[in-house]
Known about the structure:
This protein is of the alpha+beta class. The chain is 57% helix and 11% strand. It contains 17 helices and 8 strands. The strands form 3 sheets. Strands 2-1-3-4 form a 4-stranded mixed sheet. A two-stranded antiparallel ribbon has the order 5-6. Strands 7-8 form a two-stranded antiparallel sheet.
Amino acid sequence: xxxxxxxxxxxxxxxxxxxxxxxxxxxxxxxxxxxxxxxxxxxxxxxxxxxxxxxxxxxxxxxxxxxxxxxxxxxxxxxxxxxxxxxxxxxxxxxxxxxxxxxxxxxxxxxxxxxxxxxxxxxxxxxxxxxxxxxxxxxxxxxxxxxxxxxxxxxxxxxxxxxxxxxxxxxxxxxxxxxxxxxxxxxxxxxxxxxxxxxxxxxxxxxxxxxxxxxxxxxxxxxxxxxxxxxxxxxxxxxxxxxxxxxxxxxxxxxxxxxxxxxxxxxxxxxxxxxxxxxxxxxxxxxxxxxxxxxxxxxxxxxxxxxxxxxxxxxxxxxxxxxxxxxxxxxxxxxxxxxxxxxxxxxxxxxxxxxxxxxxxxxxxx
Length: 366
């Protein structure tokens, strides 16, 4: 009998979509469930937090954070690899992962919590999913949904979407970039060509749980204006059916999409590293580095936008540079013109004075 992994997650969880698509595409046997007592008890004792997704291996090992989960599993499951072998493609994967995980989340939270229809829908989802995970029903489950919703909405100022200007900027960014992405993806068409890669897993993450699945204006926009993107999202949700052979290369179509999202990501990464460098000066190296960084100002396709950053975001930005630093001199020379085009060259060539590492489920100064 094949050993089975367990993903603790939900359909309405932004990051659960990332590992769900990964596990599905890799054809790694898994079951997904939400178990409140487990997450708040045994798993919280191990990871020091209550957060989904968490993946439990057949031997009981607990993996937490989507980046760490995929990094841990990929070397053990060599069939249907998701990381491209081309250095440029891999760098673009990490750039997109950073943008989706650390910046695009602002657009997802905006469409969920600043749309009354979406907000009402997801409060019910929280009640049924999270409350149900504790065995609660009816009014008790609804109360849990409302409590979790209140906590989620408390992050809106940090994410830059508490005022009208921030909401407008996030909405414009969402609609403009989604329209462009609709020209790249579709039936049998993926970010790097004819088969999925890690880049597609990240793009699926950006949309599935909030903007594609929540009732509301964002879902209506996607289904009426971006049908090819919607087909792609459905396909990635059942990724075990998708091909593992075919072309996999960087196209002008992909670069045209990245022209829209990558420059803001580079601004965010640079601002995070500047804030983290200042925070490091007073940080205790014997304690986890959990700094919340000063607000960072960005340009989202002509709209001013300001949001917070974190030590974790700084670690994720560092991983983009690590791909570049690992390249040969020849590959760096090939990659830099593209990085310059996308606004990332200065960041890649300007390492900070500190280095971060992730251990014991937390971020530390190395």
